[in-house]
Description:
elongated, Cytochrome oxidase complex assembly protein 1, Coa1
Amino acid sequence: MSTQAPxxxxxxxxxxxxxPLAGAGLLAAFALAMFGMFSLLFGLLAHSAxxxxxxxxxxxxxxxxxxxxxxxxxxxxxxGHLNTTNDEGEANLRVPLEGPRGRASVHVEATRANGLWTYxxxxxxxxxxxxxxxxxxxxxDAGDPPAxxxxxLPERP
Length: 157
C-alpha cells in the first residue's frame, strides 16, 4: 500500500504570492479612489465663479504679468473652501500661480448674495510677500508703473 500525501489545494500552493498581490491591488484601488476624489474636488473649485474670476483678473493684470511673465498657469493644489446654497454663498480660496519668472498665489475672499459675488479680498501675493490688488479694473490701466502694485499693502480689517 502506498502512502501518498493528499493533493494540496490551489490556495495552499499559491497563498505566498497571492496574498501580497491582493494587498497591493487593494492599496492601488484605494489610491486611485483618493486621486479621483481630489481631482473631482479640485475640478469643482476650478469651475467656480470666484476661481475663474480670480484667474481672469490675474492674467489680465499687467502688474502680475510683469512679475511672473507669460504664460501664467495655475498650480494643482488650490486651497480653501467654497460653500454655496441657492443664491447665497462664500468662498475663501488660495490659488497657486506659476510663470516663467516666478510663482505667486491669488487669495480670494468673497460672499454671494442674491446670486452676485462680492469680493472682499482679491489679491495676488508674490513670492516676496508683496500684494497686487486685483479688485481694480486691470492692474495698472491708469498708467501707473507696475512697481506701484508690488508694494506691500496694509492688511484689511
